[in-house]
Amino acid sequence: MTQNIILLVVMLVVFYALLILPQRRQQKQRQTMMKQLGPGAKILTTSGIFGRVVQVQDDVLVVNIADGVDIQLDSRAVLRVVEPAPQADPA
Fold first, then answer.
1. Is there a contact between 74 and 59 (Cβ–Cβ < 8 Å)?
2. What angle do CA 12, 13, 17 make, to 5 degrees?
3. In whole angstroms, what is the distance from residue 14 CA to residue 29 CA?
4. Are 82 and 44 in contact (CB under 8 A)?
5. What is the enclosing helix (H) or strand (E) of 2?
Protein backbone atom coordinates (compact mmCIF):
# COMPACT_ATOMS: atom_id res chain seq x y z
CA MET A 1 0.00 0.00 0.00
CA THR A 2 2.73 2.47 0.95
CA GLN A 3 4.67 1.59 -2.20
CA ASN A 4 1.65 2.48 -4.31
CA ILE A 5 1.32 5.85 -2.62
CA ILE A 6 5.04 6.57 -3.05
CA LEU A 7 4.84 5.58 -6.72
CA LEU A 8 1.81 7.83 -7.22
CA VAL A 9 3.59 10.79 -5.58
CA VAL A 10 6.70 10.23 -7.71
CA MET A 11 4.57 10.09 -10.86
CA LEU A 12 2.83 13.34 -9.92
CA VAL A 13 6.17 15.08 -9.32
CA VAL A 14 7.50 13.88 -12.69
CA PHE A 15 4.27 14.98 -14.41
CA TYR A 16 4.57 18.41 -12.82
CA ALA A 17 8.24 18.77 -13.76
CA LEU A 18 7.75 17.67 -17.37
CA LEU A 19 4.50 19.39 -18.25
CA ILE A 20 3.56 22.23 -15.96
CA LEU A 21 6.93 23.91 -15.27
CA PRO A 22 7.90 24.39 -18.94
CA GLN A 23 4.44 25.76 -19.70
CA ARG A 24 4.73 28.31 -16.89
CA ARG A 25 8.21 29.31 -18.06
CA GLN A 26 6.95 29.80 -21.60
CA GLN A 27 4.01 31.86 -20.33
CA LYS A 28 6.37 34.17 -18.40
CA GLN A 29 8.55 34.61 -21.49
CA ARG A 30 5.48 35.52 -23.55
CA GLN A 31 4.39 38.09 -20.95
CA THR A 32 7.86 39.64 -20.99
CA MET A 33 7.79 39.78 -24.78
CA MET A 34 4.35 41.42 -24.81
CA LYS A 35 5.65 44.14 -22.48
CA GLN A 36 8.24 45.02 -25.14
CA LEU A 37 5.51 45.67 -27.70
CA GLY A 38 4.73 49.26 -28.43
CA PRO A 39 4.95 51.75 -31.25
CA GLY A 40 8.31 51.34 -32.94
CA ALA A 41 8.91 47.70 -32.01
CA LYS A 42 10.00 45.44 -34.86
CA ILE A 43 8.20 42.07 -34.78
CA LEU A 44 8.03 38.75 -36.57
CA THR A 45 4.56 37.28 -36.99
CA THR A 46 3.66 33.60 -36.90
CA SER A 47 3.17 33.76 -40.68
CA GLY A 48 6.75 34.99 -41.20
CA ILE A 49 6.03 38.66 -41.86
CA PHE A 50 8.39 41.26 -40.41
CA GLY A 51 6.92 44.63 -39.53
CA ARG A 52 7.07 47.61 -37.24
CA VAL A 53 4.30 48.28 -34.72
CA VAL A 54 2.54 51.57 -35.39
CA GLN A 55 -0.22 51.40 -32.80
CA VAL A 56 -1.44 49.12 -30.00
CA GLN A 57 -5.18 48.95 -29.26
CA ASP A 58 -6.02 46.37 -26.57
CA ASP A 59 -5.28 43.01 -28.27
CA VAL A 60 -5.01 44.47 -31.79
CA LEU A 61 -1.76 45.73 -33.27
CA VAL A 62 -1.47 47.99 -36.30
CA VAL A 63 1.75 46.94 -38.04
CA ASN A 64 3.53 48.61 -40.94
CA ILE A 65 4.93 45.93 -43.26
CA ALA A 66 5.90 48.18 -46.21
CA ASP A 67 5.73 51.85 -47.14
CA GLY A 68 2.07 52.82 -46.88
CA VAL A 69 0.94 49.26 -46.01
CA ASP A 70 -0.47 48.85 -42.50
CA ILE A 71 -2.21 45.70 -41.33
CA GLN A 72 -4.13 44.85 -38.18
CA LEU A 73 -3.04 41.79 -36.24
CA ASP A 74 -4.17 40.06 -33.13
CA SER A 75 -1.39 40.29 -30.55
CA ARG A 76 -1.30 36.48 -30.38
CA ALA A 77 0.04 36.48 -33.97
CA VAL A 78 3.37 37.86 -32.77
CA LEU A 79 5.98 35.12 -32.76
CA ARG A 80 8.79 37.24 -31.35
CA VAL A 81 9.95 40.80 -30.86
CA VAL A 82 13.03 41.42 -33.03
CA GLU A 83 13.68 44.92 -31.63
CA PRO A 84 11.83 46.19 -28.56
CA ALA A 85 9.97 49.48 -28.69
CA PRO A 86 12.16 52.50 -27.98
CA GLN A 87 11.76 53.63 -24.40
CA ALA A 88 10.45 57.09 -23.66
CA ASP A 89 13.17 59.48 -22.49
CA PRO A 90 12.92 60.08 -18.73
CA ALA A 91 13.93 63.75 -19.19
1. yes
2. 115
3. 23
4. yes
5. helix 2-15
| Number of Cβ atoms within 10 Å of the Cβ of 25 | 10
CA distance 49 to 78: 9
Annotate 8-57 with DSSP letters as a single string: HHHHHHHHIIIIIHHHHHHHHHHHHHHHT-STT-EEEETTS-EEEEEEEE
- Report the C-alpha gap between 75 and 23 in whole angstroms: 19
pLDDT digits (tens, 9 = 90+) for 24-51: 998 998 888 888 888 999 999 999 999 9
pTM, rounded to two decimals? 0.67
Taking only the tens place, the pLDDT of each residue in 49-85 is 999 999 999 889 999 999 999 999 999 999 999 998 8
* Size (the chain), residues: 91
